[in-house]
Amino acid sequence: MSDSQPETARRIELPIFPLPDLVVFPGVRVPLHIFEPRYRRLTEDVLARDRKLAIAVLEPGFEADYFDSPPIRPLVATCLIESSRRLPDGRFLLALVGEGRGRVEQELPREDRPYRRARIEVRPPDRPSPALASAVEAMRERVARLRATSDAPEGWIEEEAEDEESPGQALDWIHLAASTLPLSVETRLELFAIDDPMGRAQALERELERLERWQGVLARRRPPSNDLRLN
Questions:
Q1: Contact 133, 170 (CB under 8 A)
Q2: How much is the pTM?
Q3: Helix (H, G, I), strand (E, B) or coil at 144
Q4: Hey, what's the torsion of the CAs at 217, 220, 221, 225, to 10 degrees?
Q5: pLDDT 10s digits, 49-72
Q6: 21-36 pLDDT, tens per residue?
Q7: Are 227 and 158 in contact (CB under 8 A)?
Q8: List of residues 6+ apart from 95 with CB closer than 8 A
Q9: Domains and CATH numbers, the chain
């Protein structure tokens, strides 16, 4: 297939694990604690097959219908269970890695399963351009400045750059930054939905600029330290 030809859409069927605020970007690893009976069953079934599932984000207001089938966002993360540990009481501790992005086309009948399944159109894999590395270099510098402020929260991305960063490594950094920086779930979903890797990088850079401006506002509003002393 030549570069000028669009890739044919691929469709798969996967179990759906909906969560309120987890967006799993490709290549990013996340831990999961599975304790509800229906998702224990899902985990058992997935581990017995290909270890793959989809993580979906619940629509706002899901609480009223949580134990049935509350609406989910159509764009989902396709994930692989890299490792699992079953606890004596039946709970699971999982390590997931994001594999790709997909869109729910149709939810499937549950049959005898307590969890949801869907037919998913898988988006073509990302093809990052060489220009992505230079974009990431500028964003690393911005993150370093944000980390240097006293208000930077713990857990921010803090990985050293390679001497010669490949486009794939640059995209991995973008996905890790989007997962760990203090962004809202809505912002993460907006980044996740962008098909072009460079467009995703540019959108993340705008979010970093916004965070840096906000840090500047906080710094200007903070009272001098000598005003905090007790009389």
A1: yes
A2: 0.85
A3: helix
A4: 140
A5: 999 999 999 998 887 777 788 999
A6: 999 999 999 999 999 9
A7: no
A8: 29, 30, 31, 32, 81, 82, 83, 84
A9: 10-122 (2.30.130.40), 131-221 (no CATH)
